[in-house]
């Protein structure tokens, strides 16, 4: 077609298209109501979005729409289960770091006392140790920000110290009353989920899992290999106060403990057909005697692991009834930088048990369940356990197992209420133990150089009378009442706690749990049970 003919034809074509569009638009639903149309369908925004749009455009005052949207989302979710939650953008990074198993920063643990930021430990091999930071240093300034004597908060100091791997931060430390400028190159800092692994006896190993993160399985395997090199034949897995985490981490650990292609759990929901999770490979510890420790803080992935072990008669569950969370969440990223963690399925143990406790009476009642268990005596009396059973099931060895509200242990160990007298509770609430130990250790580092590792310390160290006397004086100066009238069991509790926190100060949580477990009733029972069992 020639350019001349094209110039004549194009206006005519455009006119026809425009007329057709006007005609079709007139015939569209909503064309006479002012509603906008898109192609041949009406966009239905829904009343919630309509209200938000009207508030934004028409409301008399300027509104913080982000806050309103968050309240609206949380209002919607409040009518669902207690584990469907909205994570605002300001919290998402921290939540993800906890589950991913690492963050980017300088690698120190700190506390704030008397408006001063104290370095209480330095991660071995981390950026701060490389730069020369030492336990006992006081952080005075971070870049241009004064942090000492400036009403500093933990959140604020974290924001100042954290940053992308490879970036640099200039920190002014006070050490022995001298100011030291130190430049630290930030790196990736691991957040370990296995707090401790050590040999309790020549045959019995111990692994403490604090959560199920993206690195938990690899940490577990490393701990198992270390213990097997030390001739471990029997194992205690401690899941007390473990709130759960990634389902995958729990199933992979279960695969190391169960043989053949046994079912570990299955999940199903309205939009999620049944999915079975089975053992897929030979495990590292399929036949050694096994005990698992649980309490009311063991939830979700912890209950998956404990439930599978119990249903298959693989080991002995020792402790108290678990939390009772049998719901599976999936996290969806949102356009505002936040996320929606939505319950998409329920999980069931191999026997078909759903261990989710009821949330029919609302979130407030759900949140008070643990306190109610304590008040009606369940923590101290096994007969007080009240479970709405969902499945009547006997294991192959004839054990009756219960669902509908957590994993009920095979051997019940009561909560020791005598440990928490009013004066001891005050010491905990005011962080008296950790604050005193930090100050004592900084002034007496050389006293502890004789101990080559945590095991030697735990087996040989006894808290001397001088430290007990110094701690009591510290507690009195901290306005803790009742120090002068301590009972014998209070004295024992103080000695045990001071020793454990000293071990943590020097050897982190590895030392802490090894020390604390030395006088722990659940551990004593686990050792007794495992000593009576033969490896099959």
Could you characterize the architecture of this molecule?
- With 536 residues, the chain is of the alpha+beta class.
- It has four domains: 3-75, no CATH class; 102-190, PDZ domain (Pdz3 Domain), CATH 2.30.42; 194-414, 2-enoyl-CoA Hydratase, Chain A, domain 1 (Alpha-Beta Complex); 418-524, no CATH class.
- The protein is built from 17 helices and 23 strands.
- The chain has helices at 3-27, 46-58, 65-77, 89-100, 127-131, 154-161, 216-229, 247-257, 301-311, 363-367, 369-375, 422-429, 432-443, 454-460, 465-477, 488-517, 521-532, and strands at 37-38, 41-42, 85-87, 102-105, 108-113, 116-122, 138-142, 145-146, 168-175, 178-185, 187-190, 194-199, 204-209, 234-238, 263-269, 272-278, 290-294, 316-319, 327-333, 339-348, 393-394, 400-401, 411-412.
- Strand 9 (168-175) and strand 10 (178-185) form a beta hairpin.
- Helix 7 packs parallel to helix 8 (247-257) and helix 14 (454-460) runs antiparallel to helix 16 (488-517).
- The chain is globular, with a radius of gyration of 30 Å.
- Residues 22-42 have low confidence and may be disordered.
């Amino acid at each position: 077609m020639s350019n001349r003919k094209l110039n004549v034809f194009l206006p005519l074509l455009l006119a026809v298209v425009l007329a057709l569009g006007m005609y079709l638009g007139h015939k569209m639903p909503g064309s006479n109501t002012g509603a906008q149309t898109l192609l041949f369908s009406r966009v239905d925004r829904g009343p919630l979005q309509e209200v938000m749009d009207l508030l934004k455009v028409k409301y008399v005052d300027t509104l913080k729409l982000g806050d309103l949207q968050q309240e609206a989302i949380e209002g919607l979710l409040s009518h669902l289960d207690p584990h469907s939650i909205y994570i605002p953008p300001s919290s998402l990074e921290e939540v993800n770091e906890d589950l991913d198993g690492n963050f980017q920063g300088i690698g120190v643990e700190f506390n704030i006392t008397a408006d001063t930021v104290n370095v209480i430990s330095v991660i071995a091999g981390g950026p701060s140790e490389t730069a020369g930071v030492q336990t006992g240093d006081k952080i005075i300034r971070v870049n241009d920000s004064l942090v000492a004597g400036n009403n500093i908060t933990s959140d604020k100091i974290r924001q100042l110290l954290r940053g992308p791997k490879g970036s640099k931060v200039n920190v002014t430390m006070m050490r022995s009353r001298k100011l030291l400028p130190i430049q630290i190159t930030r790196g990736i800092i691991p957040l370990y989920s296995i707090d401790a692994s050590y040999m309790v006896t020549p045959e019995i190993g111990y692994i403490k899992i604090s959560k199920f993160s993206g690195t938990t399985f690899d940490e577990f395997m490393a701990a198992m290999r270390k213990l097997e090199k030390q001739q471990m034949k029997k194992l205690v897995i401690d899941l007390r106060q473990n709130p759960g985490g990634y389902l995958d981490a729990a199933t992979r650990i279960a695969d190391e403990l169960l043989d053949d292609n046994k079912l570990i759990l299955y999940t199903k929901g309205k939009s999620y057909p049944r999915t079975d999770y089975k053992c897929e490979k030979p495990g590292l510890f399929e036949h050694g005697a096994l005990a698992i420790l649980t309490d009311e803080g063991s939830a979700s992935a912890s209950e998956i692991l404990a439930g599978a072990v119990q249903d298959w008669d693989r080991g002995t569950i020792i402790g108290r009834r678990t939390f009772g969370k049998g719901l599976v969440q999936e996290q969806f990223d949102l356009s505002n930088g936040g996320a929606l963690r939505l319950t998409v399925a329920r999980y069931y143990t191999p026997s078909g048990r759903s261990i989710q406790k009821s949330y029919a009476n609302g979130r407030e009642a759900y949140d008070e369940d643990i306190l109610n268990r304590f008040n009606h005596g369940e923590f101290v009396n096994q007969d007080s356990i009240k479970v709405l059973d969902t499945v009547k099931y006997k294991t192959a060895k004839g054990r009756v197992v219960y669902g509908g509200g957590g994993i009920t242990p095979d051997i019940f160990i009561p909560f020791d209420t005598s440990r928490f007298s009013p004066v001891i509770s005050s010491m905990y609430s005011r962080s008296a133990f950790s604050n005193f130990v930090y100050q004592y250790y900084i002034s007496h580092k050389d006293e502890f150089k004789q101990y080559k590792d945590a095991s030697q310390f735990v087996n040989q160290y006894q808290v001397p009378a001088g430290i007990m006397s110094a701690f009591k004086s510290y507690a009195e100066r901290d306005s803790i009442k009742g120090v002068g009238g301590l009972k014998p069991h209070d004295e024992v509790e103080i000695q045990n706690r001071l020793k454990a926190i000293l071990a943590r100060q020097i050897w982190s949580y590895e030392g802490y749990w090894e020390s604390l477990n030395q006088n722990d009733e659940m551990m004593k029972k686990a050792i007794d049970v495992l000593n009576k069992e033969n490896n099959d």
